[in-house]
Design goal:
4 domains; five-stranded antiparallel beta sheet; four-stranded antiparallel beta sheet
Length: 506
């Protein structure tokens, strides 16, 4: 009976420490997720060992030499158990539940170190060590250690800064070095370094101090969608719009290539052997970027191969060209005949004699315009008319001095700009291409030569132009009248609805 009383009398802090430890274990068992209850093992084992030492101390005479060391060990075991249990309670039960995610590794390490340090200080106090004298005598040692651990302390504070600023988190893909092989996913951030796993399945351990000084690219924030670029070169003989359309059609249906935002193709540079293009697409699977880049290149190759578009390589071609006068004449005649045939389909040019029309065709070149390129601007002077040989254009009319509205779309065989050619009037509208467009350009000099050869046709041509303009004005007037009627009907319907609502008529 005396032994039991002595046991409880010698228990650390009169038994309160043991009771607090047991209460802490019960709280952790309730608050922790079942899968995390293995974290109770360490504090529970320490408490059990503490109780064993308490029992040993109770059996040893108070005057024994080992009594004091055993009591210090007993207190140390209890305080370490309490420190570990409190750490698990704060870090894993309270903060993790509130933050909805695990506490960062560096904060866990700092919190746990602080609690163990407090337990050690309390143990020294129980052992009778004078802390003030200990701190005074260790000041010089602290300075020496601080200087020797400059880099380590720098990494520690850099790690704290990273966790507070949060430029990246565990799971983010980052790049901290110009070498693309070092792009990787962050798998751990601790007090000294950050670990990055590259696509080569290599772990790169980067000191936090290095990351704090380096420009960091985060491919996961603010959105997991990242843009990728693939370069390809095509021959000069193929129009950029044709290349662009061919490549874009090839990108549909590739795994991990997003439809929105849409891919794009940029004409990048004019190189020695061809035109360089940059193909840009978006993906949300950044970890599969190399595989996706490969799939994009393969699709582009097959699409260009089907379209007969060559991917050139640096080379020097030497051609021995012996022009054939007969062949050149034949090609020129074919081109002129094609232009003459197109011009003959224009109503006011149909009155021209065959020879005169052919002369006009010889003086009228065919020019190619890119999509969305402005051919004419409203209000500018003009001395040429245009016949659409291929493609489509939009006719735009400015309103209120600022805004523009589309009034018509013209396709193959349509003519525009003839009034400026014939009278020198400023352009009445702007014309912009919608697709890659070929235009036969008839300018004032070419037309003057035609009139000099056949001045008698001018009256007939003018009569056709006047009739055509009158028909156009009549058509526009009819459209305006229909628009007014529609507007009148809409306003009548709206007013009728208000009147019926006012008189509560259904």
């Amino acid at each position: 009976m005396d032994g039991i009383e002595r046991f409880f009398g010698l228990t650390s802090f009169f038994g309160l420490g043991l009771l607090v430890g047991l209460g802490l274990l019960v709280a952790l068992a309730v608050l922790l997720h079942p899968g995390e209850r293995k974290k109770l093992v360490a504090p529970a084992v320490l408490l059990v060992v503490h109780v064993v030492f308490e029992a040993i101390v109770a059996l040893i005479p108070p005057s024994a030499v080992v009594m004091k060391p055993l009591q210090v060990i007993e207190v140390l075991l209890l305080l370490v158990a309490l420190a570990r249990g409190t750490f698990v309670l704060v870090a894993d039960a309270l903060l993790a539940g509130r933050l909805k995610r695990p506490l960062p590794r560096i904060f866990r390490d700092l919190l746990q170190t602080g609690m163990y340090f407090a337990a050690g200080i309390a143990t020294l106090r129980v052992a009778g060590v004078e802390l003030s004298s200990l701190l005074t005598t260790s000041a010089l040692l602290t300075a020496v250690v601080g200087l020797s651990l400059q880099d380590t302390l720098g990494n520690l504070f850099a790690g704290i800064s990273i966790q507070m600023q949060r430029p990246f988190e565990v799971g983010d893909f980052i790049q901290f070095d110009p070498d693309p092989r070092l792009i990787g996913r962050v798998i751990e951030i601790n007090w000294r370094a950050t670990t990055v796993l590259t696509n080569d399945e290599m772990e790169v351990i980067v000191p936090n101090g290095t990351l704090a000084k380096a420009p960091i690219r985060n491919y996961t924030k603010p959105s997991p969608i990242a843009r990728r670029s693939v370069e390809v070169s095509c021959a000069y003989a193929v129009a950029p719009e044709t290349v662009r359309a061919t490549i874009l059609s090839a990108l549909h249906g590739i795994p991990d290539v997003l439809e929105s935002p849409e891919p794009s193709v940029l004409t990048w540079r004019f190189a020695d052997s061809g035109i360089d293009y940059v193909v840009r697409y978006f993906t949300s699977a950044f970890d599969l970027r190399d595989t996706t880049d490969s799939a994009v290149r393969e699709r582009i190759w097959y699409a260009l191969r089907r379209a007969g578009i060559e991917i050139p390589f640096p080379k020097r071609d030497v051609f021995v060209h012996q022009p054939s006068a007969e062949r050149e004449t034949q090609q020129r005649d074919e081109r002129v005949s094609d232009i003459a045939r197109r011009l003959r389909d224009v109503d006011f040019l149909a009155v021209l004699p065959e020879g005169t029309l052919r002369t006009l065709a010889e003086r009228s070149p065919v020019k190619v315009y890119a999509p969305r390129e402005v051919v004419l601007r409203q209000g500018e002077p003009g001395e040429a008319m245009f016949l659409i040989a291929r493609g489509e254009v939009s006719v735009l009319v400015g309103r209120d001095g600022a805004s523009t509205a589309e009034v018509a779309r013209l396709k193959k065989g349509s003519l525009f700009g003839e009034m400026s050619l014939m009278t020198g009037e400023p352009r009445a509208a702007s014309v912009q291409t919608l697709t890659e467009t070929e235009l036969v350009v008839v300018d004032k000099a070419a037309f003057a030569a035609v009139l000099a050869d056949a001045p008698e046709v001018l009256t007939e041509m003018t009569r056709v132009l006047v009739a055509r303009q009158a028909e156009l004005e009549s058509h526009l007037a009819a459209r305006a009248e229909r628009a007014r009627e529609v507007e009148l009907d809409e306003r009548t319907s709206a007013l009728l609805g208000r009147v019926r609502a006012f008189f509560k008529m259904t």
